[in-house]
């Protein structure tokens, strides 16, 4: 069972790298093999939606993190082995009997697979790995492959010894034809192990916490010390939701940190469903069917849709998923920002009230329309939090720390004036620069 999501959410949370910045995937990707990188990408693309599997994966990584096990294989062995195995596929595609690899490359591929088989056997038989009960299914699968009678000659072979031409030919037939599927299964297990060990190192180095997955449908989210993992100097927050407060209405001025906070929480929820450690000090969550965020929704020029209509279609999509009785985590940042204040007010209130009745799902709605918040106070199931702004003279300062309630902070015009935009328009660039210098001098007096 996998968590439902979509491209908009993947883009909002910056799961994968953009041209100008790294993604969340890169933060967790410290794998040693190309195969492991592909496995990790698959995990990020398809988070889990099963409580038992999420907790099992989390416990495996946590156990590896606690004993500080390193990846025991040489990456160069995988380069040789993968090239060697792929050569057979290339030969089939070309429909040619001509050998793609020379004798030396075949010998190198055979030797690398023999070494990998010996090394993985030693690893899974070690006392530390044998003691990790959560890893038992993977460990048993590896041992089951290794004890196959077809691999008995391989395990009797001495590592790093020069093989005869006849032995290389026999092993080549075994590895690339007779038992190819078992070799691929074994490599897949090693790639998965590479992912576990590399993510365990991320958890250890960054002091991330391993969340606990709870049963689906209880609308429980408990986060302590949560922050966005890509920030160099993050401010952490405590945040919680439950069935009695399954909607949070979030307010705050421009630049107060609303979007960053929404990304921090939704990133933690997303990554927790992969079974990975998150940027927090504590986390418990009820398993969800899906997560949908709307933080940076673009106009859909392909269908001639305005920003407002794109927002309407987004809400419609979420409504359809909710009507299917799915447990969802939904975020809307500045709902209906693409229309006039009156319509945005009415739409925000009506949609938020409807969301609050879906007790098996959780919602965070951010808004500048504080009047909508005042109306929503009359409804049960809705909590109110804000990110404050402290004015130091004409300069706003932001704490980035959640507080309970609704704020009417609006500092857009202050920021516009502080940047000297009106003076540029009135007096030109030169006088605006003089105005900025005068302000700076006044601030130091």
Automatic annotation (TrEMBL):
Q: In terms of domain of life, where is this protein from?
A: Bacteria
GO molecular function, a single term: mismatched DNA binding
Pfam families to which the protein is assigned, alphabetical: MutS_III (PF05192), MutS_V (PF00488)
Residue ranges that the Swiss-Prot or TrEMBL entry lists as coiled coil: none
Q: Which GO terms describe its biological process?
A: mismatch repair
Q: Which UniProt keywords apply?
A: ATP-binding, DNA-binding, Nucleotide-binding
Q: Which stretches make up the DNA mismatch repair proteins mutS family domain?
A: 245-433
What protein does this entry describe? MutS-like protein
